[in-house]
């Protein structure tokens, strides 16, 4: 038997923080790639410390639903899961290249395939692009558009900035968008000045966050000038300094994120069959249907 455990931060203050984790777990569960699919949280139940006790399988693939490598993926999660012999050097990572390593859970005896975070996986680039497609309702969006990938910045987590630039560069190399820029909340170039960094009239802004919360729902919309009070809401697209800003919200809420989770586990040796392809096709159809329904109601 093989199990998948998706581990995330969660929140005591924001009940919606864990919603994407549950939704992606449901998507993976529905394709039947694992005998068990569980979720565990730092700030919610089931806790990271207890989640392995809810799993019957001997082989467990643990995928951190985090944007970057850092304190939680390198210290908190391995400690709480009690991974015997954990050493971050086993990932052999430069800050964006963590893959996986195998350990024994000290108290349960399970073999744990501990994966790198979803946010640094190469397929996250596809999710960022899909997010742009979803918010614009255009599966071919790119020509005439700029794309901003937004993160915290180095004052909070050095590797967070690395992840942002990594994916921005990967999108840039594809040549799909006229302009691609990495922007930050806590350092230059700042998302506050988004209009200053693009010549394109239309700009899609995708925050590289796993869930919508204080930063993505309040700080960033107000900082960009989409609204002077997030409680009043804002238009999509919104006019800002001669540009149309298509604000997409947290990338982690995109249904295709389930694919990244599956790919992380597959890279670590999990037998997922054709689940990756199935999820990509299902999420594409679901989003197309949702877009059609929205258009019909306009």
Automatic annotation (TrEMBL):
Gene3D superfamilies: 3.40.50.1400
NCBIfam families: PRK02395.1-1 (NF002670), PRK02395.1-3 (NF002671)
GO biological process: cobalamin biosynthetic process
SUPFAM superfamilies noted in UniProt: Chelatase
Membrane spanning residue stretches: none
Lineage: Archaea, Methanobacteriati, Methanobacteriota, Stenosarchaea group, Halobacteria
Name of the protein described by the UniProt record: CbiX/SirB N-terminal domain-containing protein
GO molecular function: lyase activity; metal ion binding
Any Pfam family the entry gives: CbiX
Record organism: Halobium salinum
Alphabetized InterPro entries for the sequence: CbiX-like, Sirohydro_Cobaltochel/CbiX
Entry keyword set: Cobalamin biosynthesis, Cobalt, Lyase, Metal-binding
């Amino acid at each position: 038997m093989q199990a998948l455990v998706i581990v995330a931060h969660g929140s005591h203050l924001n009940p919606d923080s864990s919603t994407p984790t549950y939704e992606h777990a449901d998507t993976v569960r529905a394709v039947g790639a694992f005998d068990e699919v569980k979720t565990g949280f730092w700030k919610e139940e089931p806790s990271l410390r207890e989640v392995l006790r809810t799993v019957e399988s001997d082989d467990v693939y643990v995928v951190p639903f985090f944007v970057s490598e850092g304190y939680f993926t390198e210290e908190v999660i391995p400690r709480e899961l009690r991974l015997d012999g954990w050493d971050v050097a086993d990932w052999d990572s430069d800050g964006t290249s963590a893959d996986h390593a195998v350990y024994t859970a000290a108290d349960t005896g399970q073999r744990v395939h501990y994966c790198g975070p979803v946010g640094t996986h190469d397929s996250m680039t596809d999710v960022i692009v899909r997010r742009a497609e979803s918010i614009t309702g255009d599966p071919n969006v790119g020509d005439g558009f700029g794309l901003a990938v937004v993160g915290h910045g180095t004052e909070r987590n050095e590797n967070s900035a690395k992840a942002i630039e990594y994916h921005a560069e990967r999108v840039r190399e594809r040549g799909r968008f006229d302009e691609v820029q990495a922007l930050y909340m806590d350092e230059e170039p700042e998302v506050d000045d988004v209009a200053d960094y693009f010549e394109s009239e239309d700009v899609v802004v995708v925050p590289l966050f796993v869930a919508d919360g204080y930063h993505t729902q309040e700080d960033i919309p107000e900082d960009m000038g989409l609204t002077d009070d997030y409680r009043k809401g804002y238009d999509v697209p919104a006019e800002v300094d001669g540009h149309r800003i298509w604000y997409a919200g947290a990338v982690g809420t995109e249904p295709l994120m389930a694919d990244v989770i599956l790919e992380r586990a597959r890279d670590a040796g999990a037998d997922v069959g054709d689940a990756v392809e199935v999820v990509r096709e299902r999420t594409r159809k679901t989003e197309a249907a949702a877009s059609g329904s929205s258009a019909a109601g306009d």
